[in-house]
Design brief:
By secondary structure, this protein is mainly α. It contains seven helices and no strands. Helix 6 runs antiparallel to helix 7. The radius of gyration is 36 Å and the shape is elongated.
């Protein structure tokens, strides 16, 4: 029996969308944090309820109210310390991919174009890491294409510069020839810098 047979008006498309949303929530860092917080709150509620049921309510009849309050305070302090330490450990583990991504961004901004971050999660951080790795690959390809274009342009301009040098040799000596020779020398220097950089 399918979902739309059990609930009329609940079509297959709607069922599929709900399953997709549940899968997206299941992979979400936020959903994991909410699950951890709800679990810790439920444990705290169970501990306090159990403490009152097992320890405090029998103590009310015997007149040991002060000891019950002190014991409750100690239990609550221990539970709060456990919650804080557990929350810290879980958040540290969940945010590890974000720290790796931050290090990768710092390396990329320092000029390292061979940055590839390992992807160890399938949540938002995993998708962000994949997007970062793709971006680094595209930046590397664009810089390689730019360098190749500069090399090609430099190579193509060498022949006309050589012809200009030959034409300059045929011109009579003078101020005009000297300025043109300086311009040609400057162009040759620029082309040689492109070749050295490429």
């Amino acid at each position: 029996m399918t979902d739309h047979q059990i609930w009329p008006g609940f079509g297959e498309g709607r069922s599929r969308r709900l399953r997709e949303r549940w899968a997206a929530v299941h992979k979400s860092v936020f959903a994991k944090l909410v699950t951890i917080m709800v679990t810790m709150a439920a444990c705290l509620l169970l501990l306090v309820s159990g403490f009152f049921w097992l320890i405090v309510s029998p103590s009310l009849n015997t007149g040991r109210m002060y000891e019950a309050h002190v014991a409750l305070l100690v239990v609550l302090l221990l539970v709060m310390a456990a919650v804080v330490l557990t929350g810290h450990a879980v958040l540290k583990r969940l945010l590890r991919p974000l720290r790796a991504l931050s290090d990768g961004v710092a390396r990329l901004s320092a000029g390292e174009l061979d940055v590839v971050l390992p992807n160890c999660t399938r949540d938002e951080f995993g998708r962000l890491t994949d997007a970062f790795n793709q971006m680094v690959g595209r930046v590397r390809e664009m810089i390689g294409a730019r360098d190749q274009l500069l090399l090609d342009v430099s190579h193509e301009l060498r022949s006309p510069v050589t012809r200009m040098k030959v034409a300059l040799e045929l011109l009579p000596d003078g101020e005009h020839r000297t300025r043109m020779a300086a311009d040609v020398a400057e162009m040759e220097l620029a082309f040689s810098c492109v070749f050295v950089r490429g």
